[in-house]
Amino acid sequence: MRVTSLLPACVAVGILAILAVSVNLVSGYARRLSLGQAAFAGLGAYVSASLSVHVSLSFWIACPLSVLSGAIAGLIVGLPMLWRLPYYVPVATLTFNVLAPHLLRPGRFAGSLAGIGRIPPPRLFDIAFAPGAYLALVGVALAGCLAADWYFRQSHCGQRLRDDAEAIEAGVSAPGVAGLVAFGLSTAMAGLAGSLFAHFEAFISPFDFNLEASLFILALAVAGGLGSVWRVVLSAMVLGGMVEGIRALRDYRLLLSGVIFLLAGLRRPWRQGRT
Amino acid sequence: MAQQAIHSLSLGSIYALLAAGLTLLYATERSLYLAYGALYAMGGYVVWWTMRSNRSIGLALALAVLLCAVLGVGLVGWWRWVCARRPLQVSLLHGLGILILAEEAWRLFIGPYHRKVIAIDSHQIYHVGPLMFSDMHWLVFGCAFACFIALQGFLTTQRSGLALGALLEGKSAAGEEAERLVGVRAAWLWLLACAVGAALAGVSGVLAGLYINDVHPAMGVDMTHKIISFALIGTLGNLRGAVLTAYGLALAEGILLPALRLPLPSEGVLLLALLLASLRGAVDRTNVRQPLKLG
After folding, report:
1. Which of A244, B53, B64, B168 sees the fewest Cβ atoms within 10 Å?
2. What would the mean pLDDT of A220-247 be, rounded to a whole number?
3. ipTM greater than cut 0.90
C-alpha cells in the first residue's frame, strides 16, 4: 500500500467531514436518509468552476454562489418534506444523484465532455493559496459548518425536530418546515464542499459526484452515529482519512458502505440526546 | 415513431414486471425493499450463464424464477427478522446494504465486466407492415403479458390471491381476516407474496439481459431508483398504478423526450413526476409501518 502525500489527503478529509456534517443535518436530525449528497456537491462544484473558468469570477464570489445554488436545489427537491412522506427524500435524492452526472457528463449545460479543467485556486491579495493555506481554508469552512449546525440545533427548527424525532422516524409525523430548512442547509453545505473540492483539484468530472460517493458520505455519518455531529466528524476523519490516505482502499469504498449499512440495521443508527 | 414506441413498450414491460414485484413485497412488509434490484441482477446473470452454456431461454426463465423465489424469500425473511420493529429509515438502510453487498459479490465472483448475453446477428426479424419486430420483442411482450394475465387471474380468482389483494389495498389485518374467512394462513400469504414478487424480478432480469443484452454487477443498483420511483408515483401498494407508471415512463423516455428534443435523461422526467406526485401527496397511502403479522 502506498501512502499519498499528507496535505492533499487532509484537504480531502476536511471536505469529506463537511459533507458528513451536511448529510447528518437531513439524515440525523430530520430522520430522512439522503442518498444524493454528492450530487448537490457536484452542482456546487460545477457552478463554482463554471463561474471561475468561463466568467473569470473570483473564488470569493463563485463559492457563495455555489452555496446558494445548492440551497436552492435542495429547497426545490426537498419541498415535499412538508408532507408526511417517509420515502420521498431517499428516493428523490437517489434519483437526483443518478440524474446529475447525466446532465453534467455530455457537457449539455456546463463544461466539456470530460469535465471542467484549469479551475484556478483561490487568491488572496493576488497570491494563490498553497496546499497548506487551502487546508486552513477548509478548516475554517468546516468550523463554519459546525457553527451553522450548532445554531440550527439551538433554533426553533432544531428543537422541533428533536422533540418530534421518534414520530418523524416512525413516519407518523412530517419533518415539515424544520425538515425543509435542515435539507436546504444540508445541500448548501454540500455546495460549499463541492466548490472547495473543485478549486483544490483544478479539474472536475461528473464521475467525482456519482452514487458511490453519496453512499460513502452517508456511510461515514452512519458509522459515527447519525444525530451526533462530533461522532460524525470523527468518523469522517478516521474512515475518510483511511480511504483518502491509503489509495488502495478507495476501490473498496462501496463495499465498506454496504457493510456499514448492513450493520446499521442491527442497531439503531441514531444517537438522539448525545449531541 | 411507431418503431420507437415498440422499443419503449418492451422496456416498459421490463420495468412494469419489476414495479409489480416490488409492490407485492410492499404489500406484506409495508416498507420498500431496496435490495429488490439484487434479484433483478440475479435474473440477468442466470440468463447470461444459461446462454453461455448453450442452453435454452426457457431453462433460463425457469431457473431464474426458481432461484429468485428462493433467494427472495430468504433475503426478505432475513430483512424482516432484522428490521422488525425498527423505523422505516433503518429498514431502508439495511436493504441498501444488502443491495450493495450483492453488487460487490457479483463483482468479486463474476468480474466487473459488462457481459453480452446473445450475439446480435442471431436475432430473427419479423416484418409487420412497416414495423420490425425481433424475436426478443415477442419474447418480452409474451412473457410480460403471460405474467400479468397469470397475476391478475391469481389475484381475482384464488383464495390466496384475494387475500393478497386485500393486503395490497392496505388492509393491515388482511392476513388475520384471510385466515379466519378463507382459511389462508398469514405465513403462507407472506411466503407467496415474497416468492411471486422475487420471481417477477428474476423474469425481468432475464428479459433485460436478453433484450438490452448487457449484464453487469451494477445493473441492480442502476435500476433501483426507477423501480422504487414507479412504486411511489403509482401510489404505494397500488399494483395497477405502479405498472401504468412504468409503461408511462418508458414511453416518455422513448417518445416524448426525443419528440420534444429535450436534452434530459429519463431520470429528469422521473424526478419531476415524483416531485409533482409527492406535492399532491399521492405517493403514499399508508405511512405507518404495519407489516403482515405471521401469527
Report:
1. B53
2. 90
3. no
Greatest alpha-carbon pair distance for chain A in Å reads: 55
**CA B86, B170, B190 angle in degrees (round to 5)?**
65
Q: Are the CB atoms for B204 and B172 separated by under 8 Å?
A: no
- The answer to whether A106 and A113 have CB atoms below 8 angstroms apart is yes
Fold of B2-279: ABC transporter involved in vitamin B12 uptake, BtuC (1.10.3470)
Name A262's Cβ contacts closer than 8 Å, sequence gap at least 6. B94, B97, B98, B101
Cβ <8 Å between B271 and A96? yes
Q: Which of A80-84, B48-52, B283-287 has the lowest mean pLDDT?
A: B283-287
Task: Classify burial at A5, counting beta carbons within 10 Å of its beta carbon; exposed 0-12, middle 13-18, buried 19 or more.
Answer: exposed
Q: A188-221 pLDDT, tens per residue?
A: 999 999 999 999 998 998 888 989 999 999 999 9
Give the list of residues 6+ apart from residue A21 with CB closer than 8 angstroms, or none. A142, A145, A146, A149, A189, A229, A232, A233, A236
CB-nearest partner of B90 from A88, A108, A269: A269
Q: CB distance B222–A33 less than 8 Å?
A: no
pTM of this structure: 0.90
Q: How confident is the model at residue A274 (pLDDT cuts 50, 70, 90)?
A: very low
Considering only the beta carbons, identify the residue of B89, B101, B278 that sits closest to A85: B278
Are the Cβ atoms of B224 and A94 closer than 8 angstroms?
A: yes
Integer Cα distance of B174 and A166 in angstroms: 27
Distance between CA atoms of A239 and A232, rounded to whole angstroms?
Answer: 10
The three-class DSSP label of residue A122 is coil
Which residues sit opposite A204 in a β-bridge?
A: A116
**Which of A20-34, B205-219, B279-293 is the least confident region?**
B279-293
Whose cell is 491509503? That residue is A246
A83 neighbourhood in chain B, CB within 8 Å:
278-279, 281
Contacts of A255 in chain B (CB under 8 A): 100-101, 104
Break chain B into its structural domains and give their ranges. 2-279
* Candidate from A79, A99, A261 with C-beta closest to B97: A261
Q: Which of B86, B264, B284 lies nearest to residue A85, judging by beta carbons?
A: B284
Q: What is the pLDDT of residue B184?
A: 66
**Low-confidence winner among A180-184, B170-174, B188-192 (lowest mean pLDDT):** B170-174
Give A196 to chain B, closest Cα distance, Å. Answer: 27
**Which is nearest to A119 in space by CA: A211, A221, A50?**
A50
pLDDT (0 to 100) of residue B41:
95
Task: Give the dihedral of Cα atoms A60, A65, A68, A73; nearest 10 deg.
Answer: -140
